[in-house]
Amino acid sequence: MKVLLVEDEKPAAQKMARLLKQTAPDADLVATTETVEDTVNWLQENGEPDLILMDIHLDDGLCFEIFDTVKVTAPVIFTTAYDEYAVRAFKVNSIDYLLKPVGEEDLRKALDKYRAIHEKYHYGQAGYRHLLQEFSAAYKSRFLLKIGSRYKSVSVNQIKYIFSSEGNVFLQNTDGQAFALEFSLDHVQKLLDPADFFRINRNCLIHIDAVEEMVAYSSSRLQLHVKEEKPQEMFVVSRDRVPEFKRWMDR
């Protein structure tokens, strides 16, 4: 069993490596990475391990940025001091969510869960990943929109961007039509696949296929040129989201 450890605190990484050796003598700790960038680079260069032990808060951001940047299908055991990310974690291949300080019995039970599922799907990693997909929450593929007395079904692939304005949220499709949604933008973001949609600022979620190019803008921000749209402030990537946005575009 090849294991990748993602942990930015050296004492915590050393403790986890020690616990892993105690609870799983057959495990091979192939690498330890400390940042989102290091982990993405390692996965791109080495492929996926059998299992990932992953902290959530890393030096350069939250670990979920890894899943937004590179495709990860390996099972993950999350280890963190924070409990508010549990729901989000189980959307990205999580088989367990351990709160720090992680004890030997906690890790043993999580590894037993991994082995039990792996043995049940003994025909290989493909079957195991299929099971993980069953556990993961599915993202929306369509929105059913009410327009007066009529209804219209819009595929997420027909969405250019979703934006909020004056307390209301609207969906803009590829035909140039805007439709009101009954959800908040925060809720809509949770419904959509982060591989396809990115929250570029407080007011706009954009589909990756709608972006034609990026231009340097004031205060280290980016102005996006969106297909068949005039440049406007709504399409400016917030400064704090620029690094993550670049990684998202450069998959």
UniProtKB/TrEMBL annotation:
Keyword RNA-binding listed: no
Q: Where are the transmembrane segments?
A: none
Instruction: Output the Gene Ontology terms for molecular function.
Output: DNA binding; phosphorelay response regulator activity
Presence of keyword Phosphoprotein: yes
Which intervals hold domain Response regulatory? 2-115
Fetch the SUPFAM superfamilies from UniProt.
CheY-like
Which keywords describe this protein according to UniProt?
Answer: DNA-binding, Phosphoprotein
Q: Which residues carry this modification: 4-aspartylphosphate?
A: D55
Classification via Pfam families: LytTR, Response_reg
Name all HTH LytTR-type domain ranges. 143-251
- Protein name according to UniProt: DNA-binding LytR/AlgR family response regulator
From which lineage does this chain's organism come?
Answer: Bacteria, Pseudomonadati, Bacteroidota, Bacteroidia, Marinilabiliales
